[in-house]
Amino acid sequence: MLLLAIESSCDETAAAVVRDGRQVLSNIISSQVDLHAVYGGVVPELASRRHLEVINPLVAEALSTAGVKAEELEGIVVTRGPGLVGALLVGVSFAKAYAYALGIPFLGVHHIEGHILAVQLEQEVQYPFLAVAVSGGHTHLYRVDAIGKYKLLGRTVDDAAGEAFDKVAKMMGLAYPGGPIIDKLAASGDDGGIVFPRPMLKKQNCDFSFSGVKTAVLNYLQKLDSKPDEKQIRQIATAFQTAVVDVITQKALRAAEMEGLQRVVVVGGVACNSGLRKKFAELSLVNNLSVYFPSPLLCADNSAMLAVAGDHYLSQGFTSQLELNAVSNWPLDQIHYG
Ligand code: KG4
Ligand code: ZN
User: Fold this and answer.
1) Which runs of E-coded beta strand occur in 176-322?
2) What is the pTM of this model?
């Protein structure tokens, strides 16, 4: 099917045209980072308004880049949730109106399902696999047996990994979003001997906690005599990232072992992190695992990622009705479409 895919769950408006859930003809992303940076985080009302302003021209750009006319589209897939409800509603309402006007079906899908399946746009990963979904709102481990079959193995009990990166960056006076900045600062590998705790590693489950390591950074900063200089910021960032990467990779290994899975797929914005990629690559050799990462553009929020699920379900006749509502909180293991 030739699909238009739309994403507006947080602070990125995205539109893509994808053929047969595999061939990405366009994947356009309009980031709102500049809008929210002064507030140090996403302001929901501002996000909704910006989505509304850009969605029409963005879809036009996605179609023209793909060289596709609206009348050629065979379906629309959109993020229904989870996310900021006002932001989601812009994409969902647009998808309904556009599908209705064109007389084609549409389907509202799960944002994290999109992230997990993004990997299939670039490489064919066999099922079953362990999905490590690490983003600004999620740090979840799933066993994936097929499209639509997701079993939750573990999750964060407090902050998501990306949220912890952003909050720690803010504590150090760094810009928003802090994840990519900490990643760059940590590239030197110099942690100055600082060691932050690895919360929950001793617990024999697959859950995560990041608030302890965040508080440890805050305590460290408060004990300093003066504002940290550039070198100290680099060292704190390195020590923090190392702790987070250790926790994510160790818990993922435990989940893979418990479930007897040989393939691991790491997705979401935090999957762009170079320390995480490096550590997973090292561990894959020692533990005889195949680890897959989508390319950075497909790790962070985008809409092409929705087309794998969209094509699968729409081809089978699953569609959403015009009454469909956006949902801010929607557990992935409770989805059912149509
Ligand atoms: O998946 P995503 O784009 O949006 C959500 O669905 O949340 O993830 C955004 C999160 C932000 O918290 C951002 O700081 C983090 O991903 N992130 C990173 C990196 N790039 C983005 N965290 C660590 N290292 C990075 N290179
Ligand atoms: Zn996301």
Assistant:
1) 263-267, 290-292
2) 0.96
